[in-house]
Design a protein that fits this description.
Helices cover 14% and strands 57% of the residues. The protein is mainly beta and 84 residues long. The chain starts with a helix and ends in a 5-residue tail after the last strand.
């Protein structure tokens, strides 16, 4: 292939495949009630205090970027004029 390109003065061309890269930043919050949580309402006036362990997730940021990679199935050789 290289010998043919040198004789004909050709330029290799590859079409690009477009890819997408996603980066997601997630915040995890875990709540574990303490041993005195049941007395929060009675002594500290804290109403609706959760008594069970819970885990919450929150999406903080999403970053989307695109990139191109050469497509090996669409590779061409463009012949060039002798005048150029």
């Amino acid at each position: 292939m290289l010998k043919v390109m040198r004789k004909q003065k050709a330029c290799p061309i590859s079409c690009l495949k477009t890819g997408i890269r996603l980066a997601v930043l997630v915040e995890k919050t875990t709540y574990t009630p303490g041993e005195l949580a049941m007395y929060g309402e009675k002594y500290m006036k804290l109403f609706n205090t959760p008594m069970q362990k819970s885990t919450e997730y929150r999406v903080v940021a999403i970053n989307i970027t695109d990139f191109g990679t050469p497509d090996s199935t669409k590779h061409y050789v463009a012949a060039m004029d002798k005048k150029t």
